[in-house]
Amino acid sequence: MKIRTKELVFCSLFAALTAIFSQIIIPIGSVPINLATLSILICAGVLGAKYGTLSVLVYVVLGAAGVPVFASLKGGIAVLAGPTGGYILGYIVMAFISGYVFEKSSSWRLRAAAMITATAVCYSIGTVWFMLVMQAEWMAALATCVLPFLPGDIIKMIVACLVIQKLERYI
What is 5-166's CATH number? Predict the structure, then answer.
């Protein structure tokens, strides 16, 4: 896979943007609200499946290596092994799913459906991981890890659509 300078720069910029957006948090328990998913949706919408996923993978690898890019300036394998690790790993799949549909379709209905599906998959991976790590029951995990985040994620998807629509003119 040969990466041109433009793609390399955009992958790096979006990995950095995701790191920055991860620091904009509202602590509400063991899974904080942050803007990482907004960055990932925009990244995937602009870069597509291959480079969007690569950008998110760079973010995750940097965090796993100990660079403090995860929420609350945390990094390291311990974060990935902790209660939020499944969501962070789910970001990779989220970028691929939404980026793939953005590449294939210009229909905003399909793109919105892709963002919803990608977010649901991320929630699924993260919630199952949370249940395993915290030994939580299904309903308790949903109440802790999904329900409080739904209104904000809907807003993030709308903002992502608007930002992507503006950026598509220039990229």
Answer: 1.10.1760.20
DSSP characters over the chain: ----HHHHHHHHHHHHHHHHHHTSEE--SSS-EESHHHHHHHHHHHHHHHHHHHHHHHHHHHHHTT-S-BGGGB-SHHHHHSTTHHHHHHHHHHHHHHHHHHHH---HHHHHHHHHHHHHHHHHHHHHHHHHHHT--HHHHHHHHTGGGHHHHHHHHHHHHHHHHHHTTT-
Model pLDDT for residues 47-87, shown as the tens digit of each residue: 999 999 999 999 999 999 999 999 999 999 999 999 999 99
pLDDT band at 30 (very low <50, low <70, confident <90, very high): low
